[in-house]
């Protein structure tokens, strides 16, 4: 079941970016998903918001959830996280709880970054000072996909503060070629964000 959901979600993202209204799977007819694809296509126009790391016991996702609603940052279209995409695609949290970080989450998060087409051509990253330096979905999967995604020309970064509710803007990393402030053993060298 997990493989079907992952393949369906990735196909949904791909179809939405191409404007396809239905897609064959070889196993069942998905004509009923056309309305979902239309919704997904509209959602992909929003600013994608990524997160990684934490500060103490507070995760960067908490800050990303706040930032994605701030239209002065993400624009009038609003922000959109991978969890928003999964919810809109009808993937339950019960199903995602069974996913493996090393395969399932990497595939879905990479597809989310690869197929984002934000209206303002900007993506956003919220990161905490503590993160997994051996394997990290942001640095190993999402960032490389965003670097190749021509529909995203800028990636703006925000370092979360210890309160778990606010952030410090750290600047743009794609157009400026500064590179990601987050790295793992499998990714490009770390670019310091120290001031």
Chain-wise SSE layout:
Layout (H helix, E strand, L loop, with lengths): L1 H17 L15 H10 L3 E6 L1 E2 L2 E2 H8 L3 H4 L4 E2 L1 H7 L4 H4 L4 H15 L6 E6 L9 H12 L5 E7 L6 E6 L23
Helix pairs in contact: 1-2, 1-7, 7-8
Largest sheet: 5 strands, mixed
Low-confidence stretches: 14-37, 190-195
Q: CA-to-CA gap between the ends? A: 47 Å
Report strand order across the widest sheet: 4-1-5-6-7
Give the total of domains.
Answer: 1
Percent range of helical residues: 25-40%
Structure in words:
Keywords: Signal. Residues 167-195 are annotated as: Disordered. Residues 1-19 form the signal peptide. This protein is an alpha/beta fold and 195 residues long. It has one domain. Helix content is 39%, strand content 16%. The protein has helices at residues 2-18, 34-43, 60-67, 71-74, 82-88, 93-96, 101-115, 137-148; strands at residues 47-52, 54-55, 58-59, 79-80, 122-127, 154-160, 167-172. The strands form 2 sheets. The protein has a 5-stranded mixed β-sheet. It is globular and about 35 Å long. Residues 14-37 and 190-195 have low confidence and may be disordered.
């Amino acid at each position: 079941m997990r493989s079907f959901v992952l393949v369906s979600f990735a196909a949904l993202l791909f179809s939405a970016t191409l404007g396809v209204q239905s897609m064959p799977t070889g196993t069942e007819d998905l004509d009923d998903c056309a309305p979902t694809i239309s919704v997904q296509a509209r959602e992909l126009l929003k600013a994608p918001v990524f997160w990684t790391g934490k500060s103490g016991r507070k995760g960067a996702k908490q800050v990303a959830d706040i930032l994605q609603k701030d239209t002065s940052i993400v624009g009038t279209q609003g922000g959109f996280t991978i969890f928003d995409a999964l919810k809109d695609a009808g993937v339950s949290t019960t199903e995602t709880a069974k996913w493996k970080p090393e395969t399932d989450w990497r595939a879905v998060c990479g597809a989310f970054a690869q197929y984002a087409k934000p209206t303002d051509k900007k993506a956003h990253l919220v990161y905490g000072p503590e993160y997994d330096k051996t394997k990290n979905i942001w640095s190993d999967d999402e960032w490389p996909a965003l670097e190749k995604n021509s529909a995203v020309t800028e990636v703006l970064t925000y370092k979360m503060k210890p309160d778990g509710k606010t952030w410090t803007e750290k600047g743009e990393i794609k157009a400026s070629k500064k590179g990601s402030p987050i790295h793992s053993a499998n990714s490009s060298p770390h670019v310091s964000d120290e001031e």
